[in-house]
Specification:
heterotrimer, A alpha/beta (254), B mainly alpha (344), C mainly alpha (309), A: 254 residues, alpha/beta, Rossmann fold, four-stranded antiparallel beta sheet, 10 strands, 37% helix, globular, B: 344 residues, mainly alpha
Chain lengths: 254, 344, 309
């Protein structure tokens, strides 16, 4: 097994002549917490879209554990172990917290013919429900498990997103701003949750603007600016990198 | 009545749960009906050892009716086979119809494609007499239990027994369809359907093959609609394109919206209420004609459509969720929690 | 080949009719992105208005056109305020809007049915005399032919200019591209949308009036043309006026010259003419879902407009 879960090789993507992502080559180490930072509009989310198959790159290759997955549709990439959250949470707001959690797992009852025979999926369903219960308790969501996802608070939605990551048990989780827009008292709780996910041996690739907290947990940092990768290194190196400071880091932020 | 229930359940599965706007319900229903009529007409002759003939002639119609009244084996065989084939054909067309969904740009294009496909079906079957006898349709499809009258079994050979038996059969199929959709939707599959309906992109990033799921729901839904077409032809005795128009599809939509989106019991209630309203307008028209001489009866006929569209507009504007609210996907998963997932 | 010139002339005339009855729907789609299935009912209302007015003022085309514009515009405003406005405010899905427009269409149609059957005009002809002005290649060019072509072309050109150069037209494009942006620029969206409905409904009504001398006026007149209208608009790429003109020409020629050709050389019966719009829709939707028209870059137009002001 390779120690790199994800490799991108010269990924480029433009929209109407504007290069959103320009020749980005990066690697994410297995079991690491890797941060992707950069000002708004620097192409971070576009890169995530490309890695998770939501968008197709104009050129370049994507490798997941050394397998070329360029151009795979999102559901195939999920089956390869790539999980992606969205900056504006894309949950199923018409459904309950529990249903959202269960949806991250493949069930034998997903097939309409098997769905007719409860015996085919009942045992699995109860198993994953037990698992979901544990995870929801871990994220203090077990009280609201039957509420609709639209009925819980913004902070709880962020927590639910992470609970779903844990439930899905992916090889690589792409988290797009897991803390943004959360009230300050929830920030440490979410960071604890991130650490807990890492303890389970998952690889995390995180876009985030709360650099102070992020740099405490990150093993490696990539910095993007205007679609290009402009720096990479350990958090301590990035903080002292002049070019990065100029491009992005205001002194107030770190 | 049972037939409307099946159609409403089918549309509710496709749109209420699966988010696929089937504005071509009449196509699947009509295909089932015409498959049935064509197959039955030919099969009856084969099973009863008649020479094959043009199914559109009056002679063949009379022959069909006489076989149905006397030869139970041929009649029932033709009934069962035409049913199986119709459901199969319905499923196939449903699969074909799910293809455009993958290509359309604007949301409502799929609705348009299905509406147009249904329209094309009507025109071809109306004008091309070689397919379904043109505007006259294929008549002389007797009740599959009509032969009971020629037997000597008491009670069952009376002239009202066989229609009641067939009504029972339709009710049974409606019940089966209800159980089927209820099981399908209270399962992980039902959960998937709703997920795809609410946010297909998010569903696909969670590893769900959205295209496959959309195709599956269209196949099941249109097979059900074709089943309804099969039952209907044997009930009404004729397959005629005039019965499978876009106004008809519209009625089914009204039933579904009335009963409640993504709620199978709601679909049944919607079908029942609207059928009742239609029956009442019919009774009303007869009464008005009896008491007010010179009254134009067609006005009452028009008022049925007026009422239907008004009802739908009021529903959409004031109560878009219908009579019953959307039900949660109730799998046993909730039972692992302390309170067993009881509704608050 | 003697059939060809006459057939081409008929194609051009019918293209004019198609343009007239479709341009309003293009407008609706380009401003509020609403696939309005009730658009065809504006035609019916226009045709009935023409029927009624021509009883009083036979052959007075100008009055008839103005009156049918007015009647259909009022209807369009009424439908918008009672049905579409509440639904759009609630951000209903496109399917719900399609369904609602279907319901509105059926309501209008059967109201006309009831009124028509009480008034004894379920199928009637307006008192507009069709007089040939010249004969070209055996095909009569009538006063209605000319009126239709003139009105259709001039209203499309005027609409285009209106869209490009007047303040309210520019605002309409702003509404279509970005509602929030339009709100920020101080445009009263409600007024713009009302103006749009007056134009869309009114033009549909005029289309119905111009059609009325050639067909039997029935309450289902518009409904029977519904899918043809959509075929034209979809072919033109939904929101482009130029596209709609091209779409109308394609429809006009497909239903006349092309159909004549099929009939004469392959014996295809004319009853299948009805299949042409449907096939066009399916082909466009499946092969080139963006249509064949050229769309305005509305965003760019708005930015320019904001800079100018």
């Amino acid at each position: 097994m390779s120690e790199w879960v994800l490799e991108t090789q010269s990924i480029s993507k433009s929209y109407g002549g504007v290069k959103a992502v320009d020749q980005v080559t990066l690697r994410v180490k297995k079991g690491s917490v890797t941060a992707l930072i950069g000002p708004n509009g620097s192409g971070k989310s576009t890169l995530f879209n490309i890695i998770s198959g939501v968008d197709k790159p104009d050129s370049g290759r994507i490798l997941i554990s050394e397998k070329d997955v360029t151009g795979y549709p999102p559901h195939k990439l999920f089956q390869m172990g790539v999980y992606r959250t969205f900056q504006n949470p894309r949950l199923f707001f018409g459904m309950s917290v529990l249903e959202n959690t269960l949806l991250t797992v493949k069930s034998p009852g997903d097939n309409p013919l098997a769905a007719l025979l409860a015996s085919k999926w009942l045992k699995h369903e109860l198993n994953i429900a037990e698992q979901a219960k544990e995870i929801l308790e871990m994220f203090s969501l077990s009280e609201v498990y039957k509420n609709g996802a639209s009925e819980i608070s913004g902070g709880q939605i962020k927590l639910l997103q992470l609970a779903m990551v844990l439930m899905a048990n992916p090889r690589l989780a792409l988290l797009d701003e897991p803390i943004a827009g959360v009230s300050p008292h929830l920030v440490p709780i979410i960071f604890n949750a991130l650490l807990r996910i890492r303890e389970q041996g998952k690889t995390l690739f995180i876009i985030e603007h709360r650099l102070h907290e992020l740099f405490e947990v990150a093993d490696w940092v990539y910095v993007m600016g205007r679609g290009k990768l402009i720096a990479s290194g350990k958090p301590s190196d990035i903080v002292s990198n002049d070019m990065v400071k100029e491009e992005y880091l205001g002194s107030s932020m770190v | 009545m049972g037939i409307y229930i099946i159609l409403t359940l089918s549309l509710n599965l496709e749109y209420g749960y699966g988010g696929q706007p089937n504005f071509g319900q009449a196509l699947f229903y009509g295909m089932g009906a015409f498959m049935t009529a064509i197959l039955t007409s030919n099969l009856l002759f084969v099973f009863a050892h008649y020479p094959s003939a043009n199914i559109c002639t009056i002679t063949s119609l009379v022959q069909r009716e006489s076989i149905a009244a006397s030869n139970p084996v041929a009649t029932l065989l033709a009934w069962v086979i035409s049913g199986l084939v119709s459901v199969l054909v319905g499923a196939l067309i449903g699969f074909a119809a799910s293809y455009p969904a993958l290509r359309v740009r604007e949301e409502w294009y799929l609705a348009m494609v299905l509406l147009v496909a249904a329209q094309i079906f009507t025109i071809i079957f109306s004008y091309d007499a070689s397919l379904g006898c043109g505007f006259d349709g294929i008549a002389g499809i007797s009740n599959p239990f009509a032969w009971l009258t020629s037997t000597s079994i008491p009670i069952l050979n009376s002239s009202y027994a066989f229609p009641s038996i067939y009504a029972g059969v339709i009710a049974l199929f409606a019940y089966l369809c209800y159980t089927l959709t209820e099981r399908l939707t209270s399962s992980p599959f039902g959960r998937l359907l709703k997920a795809v309906r609410d946010d297909w992109l998010a569903a696909s990033t969670l590893g769900k093959n959205v295209n496959a799921i959309r195709a599956q729901v269209m196949v099941i839904g249109s097979a059900m609609a074709s089943l309804a077409g099969w039952l209907y032809v044997y009930y009404i005795g004729v397959a005629n394109t005039a019965d499978y128009t876009s106004s008809f599809t519209f009625s089914i939509w009204v039933m579904m919206i009335l009963g409640g989106y993504a709620n199978n019991r709601g679909a049944i209630i919607g079908a029942l209420v609207l059928t009742l309203i239609n029956e009442l307008t019919l009774v009303g028209s007869t009464l008005i004609q009896a008491y007010i001489p010179g009254f134009n009866p067609s006005v009452v006929n028009y008022s049925k459509y007026l009422l239907e569209s008004l009802l739908l507009l009021i529903l959409l504007i004031y109560r878009p969720k219908g009579l019953l609210k959307e039900s949660r996907i109730r799998t046993p998963a909730y039972t692992v929690f302390k309170d067993g997932g009881e509704e608050q | 080949m003697g059939w060809l010139p006459g057939s081409i002339l008929r194609s051009i005339f019918e293209s004019g009719i198609f343009l007239m009855i479709s341009i309003g729907l293009t407008l609706t789609l380009s401003v509020i992105k609403l696939p309005n299935f009730a658009h065809a009912e504006f035609l019916t209302i226009g045709a009935y208005t023409s029927l009624v007015i021509s009883q009083v003022l036979p052959n007075n085309l100008v009055v008839i056109i103005l009156a049918s514009f007015l009647a259909a515009a009022i209807l369009a405003l009424a439908v918008h305020n009672t049905v579409f406005k509440p639904l759009i405010n609630r951000k209903s899905s496109a399917y719900i809007l399609v369904l609602a427009s279907f319901a509105a269409a059926q309501f209008i149609r059967y109201s006309v049915f009831v009124a028509g059957s009480l008034g004894g005009v379920l199928s009637a002809h307006p008192r507009i005399t069709v007089t040939p002005i010249v004969y070209i290649a055996g095909q009569a060019i009538t006063n209605i032919y000319l009126a239709t072509l003139i009105v259709a072309l001039s209203s499309t050109i005027l609409l285009s200019l209106f869209f490009k150069y007047t303040l309210i037209g520019k605002c309409m494009r702003a509404v279509s591209s970005n509602t929030t942006l339009a709100q920020l620029s101080g445009i009263k969206i409600e007024n713009i949308v009302s103006a749009m409905w007056i134009l869309a409904g009114g033009l549909g009504g005029v289309g119905g009036a111009l059609l009325s001398p050639y067909v039997t006026v029935t309450p289902a007149l518009g409904f029977n043309l519904l899918l043809e209208i959509f075929a034209v608009v979809i072919f033109g790429g939904l929101t482009s006026f130029v596209g709609t003109i091209i779409g109308s020409l394609i429809m006009g020629f497909a239903e006349n010259t092309f159909m004549d050709f099929l009939n004469i050389y392959f014996g295809v019966p004319y009853t299948y003419t009805q299949l042409i719009p449907f096939s066009l829709i399916i082909i466009v939707l499946l092969v080139k879902p963006t249509g064949f028209g050229v769309s305005y870059s509305a965003n760019k137009a708005l930015r320019r407009f904001l800079k100018e002001n």
